[in-house]
DNA sequence: TTAAATTTTTAGACTTACCTAAATTTATTT
DNA sequence: AAATAAATTTAGGTAAGTCTAAAAATTTAA
């Protein structure tokens, strides 16, 4: 079979994105089960799709071994992520959505197919490098500007901190952070660490002290001021 | 079977939109063949879908009789058109696309599902009432602000004219109009009508005379100045 | 008003993207 | 090193949306 301009379905795009997101920096393949959990499809459905993606040379697939994206597959994944994050910026900056509302809409918008549209959207937004959750936006060539950060619960000393991202992107978590007055870019100070349960007390600007469980702190990505 | 929030697939949306666009002001049902031509699907496929849309109470369907939208179906159609035209305005006004580029991208964007998004987009654009092709944008309640216009080839007298819309939306037609310096809102004067082939000569602003075949003129919607 | 042409529907199949149930392979325990 | 458990694949099915070919209904023309 010959196809000059391979088309990739919305479903295939979502699988490719899932494989990308589940890939670790080490080169361990993504398991069928992890994809099954992530996409909420049965493992047998995942296997079907993996065969198809392998036929299209978008993934490396060997029965029972787990999968990795080919360079071609990775390029597609990164482009979808670029579109997703640019649309999130648009929704937040131009349409005044809050950071907990943008993801679900961007899940739809990321599948719109038009390179010209994304080029112009990028320009319109001033070529942003970070999305509303602090995640890097890959450039036109697919290059990520990696930001070094650590989860708050790895900070063991009382220091001035900058809040630069979230690990968890659920609406409830984002809304909670908003409710305690915490937004990307904010500076705060660790006032106390309870070494029984590793919970934190922080002081956000002029606000009162806020208590954070270790679980909460583990989903807050920070960097230490002046480091 | 019980469903509280009926979901309508992208394919169903396109059929509903097609039925709306092919419906005349008179109450003659839309034929299977006309839908088949418009959607470039076989008539048998159309029949299958009509049965499904009828089951969902979105159209009135009687075998061999042609179809009409129910009020519910019409509401859906108008909402899709509203979204399409708002996105066209966005693409043109904010992203500087030309009027011949916006339609194809809007065909994708019109299917994005989020009432909140459209409300905010509408506000962001300043609640426009016309799209880049001069077509009216229905308001949130689905009301069209009908503009009275006539095809240029129905003007039989030499008069000052305002160009307010196009009947044909193909890229080549729109590009041609651009090439002769004609855009929505422009004023021009009919300088001559050749009564052999009903072709027109018009003068656009300070430009030279432009020759328009009757076919071309029939796709240019105008109103007569001061009327 | 019958015959021919056209339109529309029905019947049966195919593809995509899912599913359940039953193998099969790989990993973990005794 | 078996036995058991877990992960993965295969086999067989379903629903949505398409198709071709054939039958039926409607329209048009003789
Ligand atoms: Mn997101
Ligand atoms: Mn994000
Ligand atoms: Mn359009
Ligand atoms: Mn338009």
Can you tag this structure with a few keywords?
SH3 type barrels, 227 residues, Arc Repressor Mutant, subunit A, 6-stranded antiparallel β-sheet, two-stranded antiparallel sheet, DNA-binding, alpha+beta, 39% helix, binds manganese (II) ion, homodimer
Report on this structure.
The structure is a homodimer of 227-residue chains. With 227 residues, chain A is α+β, with helices and mostly antiparallel strands. Among the domains of chain A are: 60 residues, Arc Repressor Mutant, subunit A (Orthogonal Bundle), CATH 1.10.10.10; 79 residues, SH3 type barrels, CATH 2.30.30.90. In chain A, 39% of the residues lie in helices and 17% in strands. Chain A has eight helices and eight strands, in the order αααββαααββαβββαβ. In chain A, strands 3-8-4-5-6-7 form a six-stranded antiparallel β-sheet. Chain A has a two-stranded antiparallel sheet with strand order 1-2. In chain A, α1 packs across α4, α2 packs across α3 and α4 packs across α5. The termini of chain A are far apart. Chains A and B meet through α5 and α6 of A and α5 and α6 of B. The site of one manganese (II) ion (MN) has 5 residues of chain A, from α4 and α5.
* Oligomeric composition of the shown chains: homodimer
Query: Roughly what percent helix of chain A?
Result: 25-40%
Overall structural class of chain A, as computed from helix and strand content, comes to alpha+beta
* Broad CATH class of the domain at 146-224 in chain A: Mainly Beta
> Which sequence of strands runs across the widest sheet of chain A?
3-8-4-5-6-7
Overall mean pLDDT score of chain A? 94
